[in-house]
Amino acid sequence: MRLINIGFGNMAAAERVIAVISPDSAPVKRAVQDARERGVLIDASFGRSTKSVIVMDSGNIILSALPTETIANRIQEQNEQGGNEENE
């Protein structure tokens, strides 16, 4: 299992991430509110403004203070490193 840093020392399983999206649109805000009501919301923003919403394959939604591009780049780097390790 590969972990990615999602900010403030928090980690998430890279293989279980379905999407990393911006929290600005109304549908995403509704999804976050629904996750909060269902008890599957994980707030990893430490009280800072939410800059990305991470959707996991388990149905959990994680809020992060890191920009979506930063998290996406970290996932991409993990995928590239994983491909290189398999070839060695």
The largest beta-sheet arranges its strands as 3-5-6-4
Radius of gyration based on Cα positions:
13 Å
Number of helical stretches of at least 4 residues: 2
Uncertain stretches of 5 or more adjacent residues:
none
What's the overall average pLDDT, rounded? 93
Q: Which structural category do the helix and sheet elements fall into?
A: alpha+beta
Q: Give, in order, the helices and strands.
A: EEEHEEEH
List the main descriptive attributes of the protein structure presented here.
two-stranded antiparallel sheet, single chain, alpha+beta, 38% helix, four-stranded mixed beta sheet, 2 helices, 88 residues
Describe this structure in words.
- With 88 residues, the protein is α+β, with helices and mostly antiparallel strands.
- It is 38% helix and 30% strand.
- The chain contains 2 helices and 6 strands, in the order E-E-E-H-E-E-E-H.
- The strands form 2 sheets. Strands 3-5-6-4 form a 4-stranded mixed sheet, with helices on both faces. Strands 1-2 form a two-stranded antiparallel ribbon.
- A hairpin with a 2-residue loop joins strand 1 and strand 2.
- The longest helix has 20 residues, at 68-87.
- The protein is globular and about 40 Å long.
- The two termini are 18 Å apart.
- The mean pLDDT is 93.
Structure summarized in a few sentences:
This protein has 88 residues and is α+β, with helices and mostly antiparallel strands. The protein has helices at residues 26-38, 68-87; strands at residues 3-7, 10-13, 17-21, 41-43, 52-56, 61-64.
